[in-house]
Amino acid sequence: MVRSVAVLLGLVVVVVLVGNFLFSRDGGDRPTVDWEQPLVQAREASTFPLWAPPSLPEGWRATTVSYSPGETGRWHLGVQTADDDYVGLEVSPVGERRLVERYSGSTSQDGEVEVGGHTWTRWSGDDETSLVRTDDDGTAILVTGTAPAAEIRDYAATLTTG
Question: Which of 1, 22, 52, 162 has its CA 20 to 30 A from that of 32?
């Protein structure tokens, strides 16, 4: 019986370690990926506007990028800051609530803030800051991460659709 418990405990540890590696939001030692060419291709195919920065701040690097088309589609750009914090950008026509629930679930609404000429709803909690807003065409934009709130705001202010 002790051996069985030890084996099960070992399996749980392995699952936790693999899960933390695969789903960690801190960027870790993930390789840098090209995000600019996928953005160009996604913008050509997308039925909703894709927001992104014109360039990344000095010392920041993209670690994840993905695009899914359609009514429930999504544009994602995950970056690691110069201080090894994580900042994620999620753009989708599914609405603010779904983006927050899916990518910022450990936060709670914390007021509004003006950033880049737009009013964003601020969410915060557990060392995470999120800003979310809906564009005029109904596209929801979420910027979330472990970076300091000022960096999240500065990054959100750079976002553009072209």
Answer: 162
